[in-house]
Amino acid sequence: MSASPASSYDAIVVGSGPAGATAALLLARAGWRVAIVEKATFPRRKVCGEFVSATTWPLLDELSVGDELRDQAGPVVRRVGVFAGTSIVTAPMPATGKSAEGGRAVSRESLDAVLLRRAVAAGATLWQPWTVTAFASGAGRHACTIEDRERGERRVLEAPVIVAAHGSWDRGPLPTQPHRQVAAASDLLGFKARFLGGALDNDLMPLLAFPGGYGGMVNTGAARVSLSCCIRRDHLDAARARHPGRTAGEAVLAHIIENCDGVRAGLATSSCDGQWLGAGPIRPGIHDFGGDGVFAVGNAAAEAHPIVAEGISIAIQSAALMAQTLGRFSPAASAPAALVAAHARYQRLWRRNFAPRMRASALYAWLFMRPLPTRLAVASMQGFPSLLRIGAAWSGKSRQMQSRGHPFALLNAPIGDDV
Ligand SMILES: Cc1cc2nc3c(=O)[nH]c(=O)nc-3n(C[C@H](O)[C@H](O)[C@H](O)COP(=O)(O)OP(=O)(O)OC[C@H]3O[C@@H](n4cnc5c(N)ncnc54)[C@H](O)[C@@H]3O)c2cc1C
């Protein structure tokens, strides 16, 4: 494999999902010399329900991608629901205050590619498809070895700041990346497929509750409904044993249909558009914010249970918080002490904004993966549908990002007086 001399940047962003592309875009706009490294070739499919909450669309407008994404997105979602057993409960989505627009789904093929293109237009240097394969630190600088495996090339990129935006599934050399884990019955595995000709109300996004897992459905535009879900490994194994000859995704769908009449009805006349995707195990919880010049954003920092469909929003919003915190410094002033202060401030803002959503997602996951608590919750919601709306609000569906108690104003910085 050939190697060249190291290239120097102010920041290296590892991974170009919604978090990485947002961070690269905003740091490049702030005048930083940014490299963004992404191992996958775009457009690429991803295990994800693809719903982007109303609270994130104003931010997408500030990133200058809102209109382009609206053109490719599904219809506005105005109702949340629960499909569990024979029950179907729905309620209006909580209001967001600032944005009357509502949330909507946009395919990851579009979202990730559009954000990345905008980051490059803002001045970020793109390394794609390159993989970060080694990482070293010393004297206030970090070195990432990146490889283009197809062409057999290797480079070294250096910078004082690393933005860890590699998601939570891929193992790798960064201290923020997960290590190999032993498979466990309780592992949650993610699945996703799109269906043509499904019969789901345009304005409805139901949560699907079934033994050992949970999921969601939403219209993604172009006459397609996406179904994404998480299921425990032991329940997946049992579903596969009950449905021999089917793929893992097909067995999961059969298990969901056995336990959710709403899904059976919604997909009765539909056909699967492409193959099922599977991934995981997912790693819900707060992981690692980095340190020593490494700033973790998106799923690398923390992963909310997908039951609340907030991961993309947290990815984009956390990257924006981080970039605004860092972007207040000129890159030349990114001395270790300044980076430590910026990191502390970023963590503080992160917890203030996202910790409640993480807690709500863990509670709902616990509740809706178990038949008895699900039955009790659904019975309560049938009596008081506003509970469903309140639950959606707790999961972050209505709260704009805050900084010092004020709505987050990305372009109206400075907000840095609480460091
Ligand atoms: C079943 C399921 C359904 C979901 N539904 C929703 C939903 O409806 N709405 C919602 O908001 N969220 C949803 N989520 C969560 C959402 O998908 C994630 O929170 C989101 O993708 C996180 O974005 P990210 O940018 O942090 O990471 P990712 O999107 O995972 O991006 C990380 C990127 O880093 C790259 N990378 C990794 N390692 C390296 C390396 N060494 N070198 C170079 N590149 C690397 C990867 O190729 C990838 O492109 C769902 C998740 C699951 C599992």
Search tags:
11 helices, 7-stranded mixed sheet, globular, alpha/beta, FAD/NAD(P)-binding domain, binds flavin-adenine dinucleotide, 419 residues
Summarize the structure.
This protein is of the alpha/beta class. Helices cover 34% and strands 27% of the residues.
DSSP helix count? 11
Oligomer: single chain
Determine the strand fraction and express it as a percent band: 25-35%
Helix content: 25-40%
CATH topology: FAD/NAD(P)-binding domain
Provide the structure class: alpha/beta
CA(first)-CA(last) distance: 45 Å
- Can you tell me the CATH architecture? 3-Layer(bba) Sandwich
Radius of gyration: 21 Å
Domain count: the total is 1
Taken from the alpha-carbon principal axes, the silhouette is globular
Runs with pLDDT <50, length 5+?
411-419
CATH superfamily: FAD/NAD(P)-binding domain
Number of distinct beta strands: 24
Query: Main beta sheet: strand number and arrangement?
Result: 7 strands, mixed
List the ligand species.
flavin-adenine dinucleotide
Mean pLDDT: 91
Strand order of the largest sheet: 7-6-15-16-17-14-18
CATH top level is: Alpha Beta
Report on this structure.
With 419 residues, the chain is an alpha/beta fold. The protein has one domain (2-179, 284-407): 3-Layer(bba) Sandwich (FAD/NAD(P)-binding domain). It is 34% helix and 27% strand. The chain has helices at residues 18-29, 57-62, 66-72, 108-121, 233-242, 248-259, 261-267, 311-327, 336-368, 371-383, 386-397; strands spanning 2-3, 7-8, 11-14, 34-37, 51-52, 79-84, 87-92, 104-105, 125-127, 131-138, 141-148, 153-159, 161-164, 188-196, 204-210, 213-221, 224-232, 271-279, 285-286, 290-291, 294-296, 302-303, 402-403, 406-407. The strands form 6 sheets. Strands 7-6-15-16-17-14-18 form a 7-stranded mixed β-sheet, sandwiched between helices. Strand 16 (213-221) and strand 17 form a beta hairpin. The longest helix has 33 residues, at 336-368. The protein is globular, with a radius of gyration of 21 Å. Mean pLDDT is 91; it is low at 411-419. Bound molecules: flavin-adenine dinucleotide.
